[in-house]
Amino acid sequence: xxxxxxxxxxxxxxxxxxxxxxxxxxxxxxxxxxxxxxxxxxxxxxxxxxxxxxxxxxxxxxxxxxxxxxxxxxxxxxxxxxxxxxxxxxxxxxxxxxxxxxxxxxxxxxxxxxxxxxxxxxxxxxxxxxxxxxxxxxxxxxxxxxxxxxxxxxxxxxxxxxxxxxxxxxxxxxxxxxxxxxxxxxxxxxxxxxxxxxxxxxxxxxxxxxxxxxxxxxxxxxxxxxxxxxxxxxxxxxxxxxxxxxxxxxxx
Length: 252
Description:
CATH class of the domain at 62-88 and 117-251: Alpha Beta
Oligomer: single chain
Strand content: 15-25%
Helix content: 25-40%
CATH superfamily of the domain at 62-88 and 117-251: P-loop containing nucleotide triphosphate hydrolases
Number of strands: 9
């Protein structure tokens, strides 16, 4: 069967040199984290004041993943604690998902942390008297509320669907860190902060846990800021920043 060809009018339209309509660029999203002029000092045992954090500017885009390299004692953990609102700054601005964290009272900082941030620590910080599922559900209770189906799905995502009713002491170290990853994502955070999350794991488990953390964050569209001194861990990131290039306490 011969199909009819295009008409002369159609051919003329197809060969027209009129420019095609261009799709407007997608709106640029504001950063999930925007830090300006941040300062934090502590009183030393001999009575002196030591400036630990002096970060003039730091931003992290929504959904981005960044490895932050820093040695022990460099102030990187204090930096994360400032972002999380656990520690109050001496000066500066921390915009977290568009909210000025430094102006909030402690109760509202806690609420913002629960609903906007997820945290993964080197020491896991799991509650030993609670099962895996209860650890995740408890985290949810500080956010939008308990969602048993989502908590179960998160634990399944990290490979622990067969360990829902196990207590942390019944799990391997690697499994405990997987629970911590699930808990960090319990409230669908905009940003996950990870402080040496693989520090207690061997090289194989560390690589597996990091891959899982990065994949889970990407699936949830959560930005990830991970601090570490481990070159092998940082090598897994496309983007790595040196904390000493951001933090200049000696110059402030």
